[in-house]
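Why Alcohol dehydrogenase? Reviewers of the renewal asked for a concrete example.
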Amino acid sequence: MFSGAVIYDSPTAAIARKAGEPLVIEEIEVAPPKASEVLIKILCTSLCHSDVTFWKMAAGPLSFFPRIFGHEAAGVVESVGENVEEVKAGDLVLPIFQSNCGECRDCKSKKSNACSKFPVRFYGGMPIDGSSRFTDMNGQILHHFFSVSSFSEYTVVDMSHVVKISLEIPVDKACLLSCGVTTGVGAACKFAQVEEGSTVAILGLGAVGLAVAEGARICRASRIIGVDLNPEKFEIGKQFGITDFINPTTCGEKSISQVIEEMTDGGADYCFECIGLASLMADAFNSSRQGGKTVVLGVEMHGSPLSISPYEILRGRTITGCLFGGLKPKSDISSFAQMYLDHELNLNGFITHELNFKDINRAFDLLLQGKSLRCIIWMDNIENGK
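Here is what the prediction returned.
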């Protein structure tokens, strides 16, 4: 059990000093875990669009700098604080942004994956009190991100955000289960419960959107329509089950919803919005059939209101949203890992690049250029990045 001062050499972290500026790799100090906390040695991490969104955010109540980003990772437990019995040193774990205490009313409910004991209150620190476990070598506090901060060789995470996972799964594939892929697959398989033979439309074919397609494929949807401005996404999407593709720029005077309605004889059974734009959320809703269901996965960061017709709601169309695919991390992630081990879930296709930690800024460039789905960033050097 960990107590007192840190007993290992000063680890390094990729620090965002200012919004939108390249990350700087520096030595830092990591405080030991307190009660109900876990010290994790990060083995690999990856870059998610949410990291980029907040990295660009120069002002506002959610903007904290200097900061250690990263929230999609796999690592090994180095040590634990008091009252931690769920994991021990040497266990392979995933730090997860979605809390799951397992004790509160919401965690025990089957209706959602919310956690009322640890609701999102502190965007720049630990979930209990907002304090930080990171300082730079000058003693300056470094802020956390999404209760994970995986762009660091070591991080401290509250046990409510830690999931133990089987050692059988390769760590780079396990890493993908800590955010984006699980969000998309879970949204289709568990939250929406897509039925065999149904039609599915997905607006936005980033990693989350393609993961929705993968989930719909697993559920044996008969038709999976992908909508994206990048024509290359059709070929990429085929390996995840995309059967049809719409590029909005080639629709002429027709709206996305009109095209989908014509393709599906009245609209899709399930529509998923995976970008985070209110206008696309409305398009997704309007693309669904009578009695159809629209699921919003994208986070609207512009403050734009969503406008939909109350009459269409009366006709049976529904629209709802979910975080982390509606999954409860501690009970659901293990089943996804087993699906991968049983060759039912395609994780390999999401990994487009692998880089050394020192090259982390290149991962940002690749994502911003639309060239990567998931870039695995190895904390220990790999021979050749790809």
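DSSP finds eleven helices and 17 strands in the chain. This is the kind of structural detail the renewal will allow us to pursue systematically.
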